[in-house]
Here is the input.
Amino acid sequence: DADVTQTPRNRITKTGKRIMLECSQTKGHDRMYWYRQDPGLGLRLIYYSFDVKDINKGEISDGYSVSRQAQAKFSLSLESAIPNQTALYFCATSDPGTSGSWATDTQYFGPGTRLTVL
Amino acid sequence: GQSLEQPSEVTAVEGAIVQINCTYQTSGFYGLSWYQQHDGGAPTFLSYNALDGLEETGRFSSFLSRSDSYGYLLLQELQMKDSASYFCAVRDHGDYKLSFGAGTTVTVRA
Here is the structure.
């Protein structure tokens, strides 16, 4: 079974609809992230969470909200979807590993959710 | 903030060597990471350099020069399966979150 799962894998919705993307992990990691990927722009950070009580905005948080329901679950919501939110969305987790340092942690990505807003 | 530059595309033939350069500007530096992403798939970690020099992992090597704010990923003995996008990433000074470059698409031809 995959360590980081995302649902749904594909979603087509209409402008103005509310939509939630879900992420679950079995790796036991404290840190979780939501990224957006657009062609030619790489991965841009939307929100990140260091634990259940610690949620932070990334570089492109406008139009998005998140909920960290448990250590294993981190959801991304689009309250009122718009066409320029059409993108590939990735959830990721990380931990400091054997080094014990967040400066060297490795991120583990889910399979992605392809979202289309019409 | 962070700023990273890498070429958008590289094409090479099987068996060749490809070097993907990455230059960065960052307020604080905790190392340069590289991730690989096959078309439509999840990015996966390749390598990390915290100190100057070359790190080798099989056919892939990564180099860092902190004084030049520059690094590169070297892909040797290219195989068709190496066709993918490669992202460099640096870590934020405050809370260590990653900032990614726009990615380099490597196409390997027969």
Summary: The mean pLDDT of chain A is 92. DSSP finds no helices and eleven strands in chain A.
